């Protein structure tokens, strides 16, 4: 999974479709530049339906396939599912180990994930508790846990070496400092998101929502991140 030029990005998302909302446009841009973009989905998506007749295992299987198709559409190389229970994600040592292992195996230059620091986002959204748990654990996994060899030393016995991430991009933030112009990639982002048929059956209405939500005052379409460049 490594790239000799360091062109590897890891998207750590709580649920299927979260990473698509957060960074599908930028993922498409990185893939077009030759980057290997890997997705890590932390929960099984088992509560993501309003259909009371949908069997649990059927929904999990559908959401997995939807995320795989979305990744194909945006140019991501691969997706891994941790299968923690949707809506019940807890930041504990087991979850931290899962994320540290992924970072050490994928060895990304850049990690993209949820900003866990605010419960209310832009006075419009409540930051889901699974998002906050994922973002907090991901940041702790990045620094210092994945970097230091004394954390989870059993990884060394498996030949998995520590790894230092150089850049973190947080989506769903109240403090953006890094804008990516995705005007040319907006259709790709929408195409990826509409792979999630179980979530967005009203395709036309959903497309209008994504366009409106991504549009800046100057008419461009943006993905906005809080960017952290790690110096040590």
Gist of the model:
This protein is α/β, with parallel strands linked by helices and 232 residues long.
Write the layout of secondary structure elements.
Layout: E1 8-13, H1 18-32, E2 36-43, H2 56-74, E3 78-84, H3 93-106, E4 110-114, E5 120-121, E6 125-126, H4 129-145, H5 154-157, E7 167-171, E8 178-181, H6 186-193, H7 203-214, E9 222-229
Parallel strand pairs: 1-2, 1-4, 2-3, 4-7
Antiparallel strand pairs: 5-6, 7-9, 8-9
Helix pairs in contact: 1-6, 2-6, 3-4
Characterise this structure.
The protein has 232 residues and is α/β, with parallel strands linked by helices. The protein has a single domain, classed as Rossmann fold (3-Layer(aba) Sandwich). 38% of the residues lie in helices and 20% in strands. The protein has 7 helices and 9 strands. The chain has helices at 18-32, 56-74, 93-106, 129-145, 154-157, 186-193, 203-214; strands at residues 8-13, 36-43, 78-84, 110-114, 120-121, 125-126, 167-171, 178-181, 222-229. The chain has a 7-stranded mixed β-sheet with strand order 3-2-1-4-7-9-8, with helices on both faces. It has a two-stranded antiparallel sheet with strand order 5-6. Strand 5 (120-121) and strand 6 (125-126) form a beta hairpin. Helix 1 packs across helix 6 (186-193) and helix 2 packs antiparallel against helix 6 (186-193). The radius of gyration is 17 Å and the shape is globular. The two termini are 23 Å apart. The model has no long low-confidence stretch (mean pLDDT 95).
């Amino acid at each position: 999974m490594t790239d000799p030029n360091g062109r590897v990005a890891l998207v750590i998302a709580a649920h299927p479709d979260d990473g698509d909302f957060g960074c599908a446009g930028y993922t498409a841009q990185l893939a077009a530049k030759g980057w290997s973009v890997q997705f890590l989905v932390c929960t099984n998506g088992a509560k993501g339906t309003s259909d009371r007749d949908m069997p649990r295992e059927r929904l999990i299987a559908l959401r997995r396939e939807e995320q795989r198709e979305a990744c194909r559409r945006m140019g991501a190389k691969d997706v891994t599912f941790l299968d923690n229970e949707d809506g019940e994600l807890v930041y504990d040592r087991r979850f931290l180990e899962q994320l540290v292992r992924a970072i050490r195996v994928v060895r990304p230059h850049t990690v993209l994930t949820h900003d866990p620091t605010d419960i209310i986002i832009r006075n419009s959204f409540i930051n889901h508790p699974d998002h906050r748990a994922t973002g907090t654990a991901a940041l702790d996994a990045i620094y210092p846990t994945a970097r230091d060899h004394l954390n989870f030393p059993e990884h060394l016995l498996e030949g998995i070496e520590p790894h230092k991430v150089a850049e973190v991009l947080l989506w769903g933030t109240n403090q953006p400092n890094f804008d990516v112009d995705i005007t040319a990639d907006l259709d790709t982002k929408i195409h990826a998101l509409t792979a999630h048929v179980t979530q967005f059956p009203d395709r036309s209405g959903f497309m209008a929502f994504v366009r409106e939500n991504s549009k800046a005052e100057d008419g461009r379409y943006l993905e906005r991140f809080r960017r952290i460049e790690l110096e040590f």
